[in-house]
Amino acid sequence: MYTEENAKGRFPLRDILLKAIVVIIFIILIIFIISKLTAPNNSKSAKEDSNYDKVFNQNIALMETAAYTYFTKDKLPTEVGDVSELTLREMINSNLLEAFTDADGKACNVTESYIRLTKNTDDYTLRVNLVCDQKEDYTLTKVGEYDYCEHDICKRDSSKEESNDQKEDSEEPTKEVDITEPTNDTASTNTSRNNTYAYVPNTNNNNNNNNSNNNQAISTTMYEYRKEMPPVLSEWSSWSDWDYNNKRYTAIKCASTDTSCLREVQLFSRREKIGTKNGKPVYATVNYYSYRTRTLQSSGSSDIKWSTYNDTNLLNQGYTYTGNTR
Fold it and tell me: Which of 171, 243, 277, 304 gives 20 to 30 Å between its CA and that of 87?
């Protein structure tokens, strides 16, 4: 009797365990199916993030390239710790680069994005800061004035420096020989005299080599000059008549060189009678506004000319060296 009741008591427990195992397996299957269904979305999101980063890095590279063009000798900071900075808005207005957008087609922040050059003891630090809708980042690059730079400054390239050092080591120093005063005595032409008067490079090449060197064309190095023409804004129009500020305009004051600000607004308010109530006048503050406008006549440009070194005519006209030669 005791054994039969014991056996009956274990069967319900076994059924419960089996049901629990089935439920657990069912839940695991549901989780697996959901993860499979959502995996493509995660992959798509990762792909979009990768594309956003790619476009972001391309834009920051454009800013860095434009920085090498902008920072000519006259714009380089001179004292250690001095800083020279240019915002993205100023870069676009100066035609250093064209306005760009992020991967979503949204414009980046033109005031908080900038290039900044800081003077160190022996070189400079170039910071390129870019702020867009979904990402903000910057790069720091050591730059300097090196012989191999295409512009006045560039990144330090140790491989080019090693190449120049090897070239200097391989060049033999120019030898000098004594040239004796000419004489009509045939016998003395083969002897060197003590009264030397000039030094010339030692040339042991044969006549063919001498003729070849004489026939070589003389090349002239041309230097690139650049002149930046700033944007041109018209004069301000006259202020408009005062009108009710029903649209709640805010005051706007434009900087003299801000080409994106073409409308200024000024405000005025006073207490006025606006009606009567119970035979008594009712007063309130009434707001007015007035505005004036200007137009952008020229967005500015950059003119490049090629000439010989120290062309005073171009320098007097405001042109400066870019560091490029041909």
Answer: 304
Distance of CA 207 to CAs 141, 182, 190, 202, Å? 53, 21, 19, 14
Asked if residue 117 and residue 49 are part of one domain, the reply reads yes
CA 228 to chain centre: 17
Based on the structure, what is the number of domains in the chain? Answer: 3
Query: 145 and 60, same structural domain?
Result: yes
**Domain that includes residue 256, residue range:** 232-298
Query: 128, 59 in Cβ contact below 8 A?
Result: no
Q: Point out the least confidently predicted range of 73-82, 148-157, 192-201.
A: 192-201
| Beta carbons of 228 and 319 less than 8 angstroms apart | no
Query: What φ, ψ does residue 227 adopt, rounded to 5°?
Result: -130, 120
Distance CA(173)–CA(165), nearest Å, equals: 15
Residue 2 has pLDDT above 50, yes or no: no
Q: Which residues pair with 138 in a beta bridge?
A: 129
Tell me the β-bridge partners of 261: none
Q: Tokens at residue 280, please?
A: 């008594």
Q: Phi and psi for 64 in degrees, rounded to 5?
A: -65, -40
- Band the pLDDT of 165: cuts 50, 70, 90: low
The reply to whether 101 and 112 lie within a common domain is yes
Boundary of a domain, candidates 124, 144, 171: 171
- What tens digit of pLDDT does each residue of 291-304 get? 999 998 877 788 89
In Å, how far are 4, 7, 13, 28, 192 from 17, measured between CA atoms?
21, 16, 6, 17, 119
Nearby residues of 200 by Cβ (< 8 Å), 6 or more positions away: 176, 177, 179
Residue 16 pLDDT: 85
